[in-house]
Here is the input.
Amino acid sequence: MTDFALKELLLLDWSLPSAAENLAADEFLLSCCEKSGELQLLRFWEPTTYFVVVGYGNKVAEEVNLGFCQQSGIGVYRRCSGGGTVLQGPGCLNYALILKISDDSFTRSIPETNVHLMHKQAAALHKATGAAVTVQGYTDLTVKNYKVSGNAQKRGRTHLLFHGTLLLNLDLAKIGDALKSPPRMPDYRQSRSHIHFVSNLPRVSTHEIKKSFCHEWQARQEWKPDEPMSDEWAEKYRSPEWNFKF
Here is the structure.
């Protein structure tokens, strides 16, 4: 099996003003890569406000404290990939990998992609922080049995999107206010409340994390979209029909 998906990975450090735009950008970039045929990307972005993001198939009423979010001005959005519900905000660093699907690489199936990418991300975080980083619950990264990163995958026709959030300096108390206990929990969580389950990474800068991820993925050359993202992409993520569909 080859490491095909590591070839010619380009870098995009691209934070947009709103939650809807940033969530839309990952799907927009997946479309760009599929149109190009060979383009593969590593993107970083950082939120400046608090908002909740539910996985594609999650039910908002089961996972989100809507009353608190509405009173606090915390928007609720749905992403295009699966996975659990998370609180985003200042102190989070997001990444997205868009890789070409190939029958002779780890990208050929969902399980193989999860295993390969999670171990590479764990290695990158270990190099940046010096901490022992463990993969648990399929797509969680943990330090001392506390979750520091959640990740999810969406597969297109020719490329896949694998993205996640890294907790660096998030106000963790807000998670328990904004989110209910999830109806499904990984075994390692052992029914712990949010505040006893998640943690920020050991003291590390966003620069060091980005540097380590770029080294792990050999992403050195910067890239920008040939055309700007149209507002239609963000409109989807602003739409109550999309965000509250379940």
Summary: The mean pLDDT is 95.
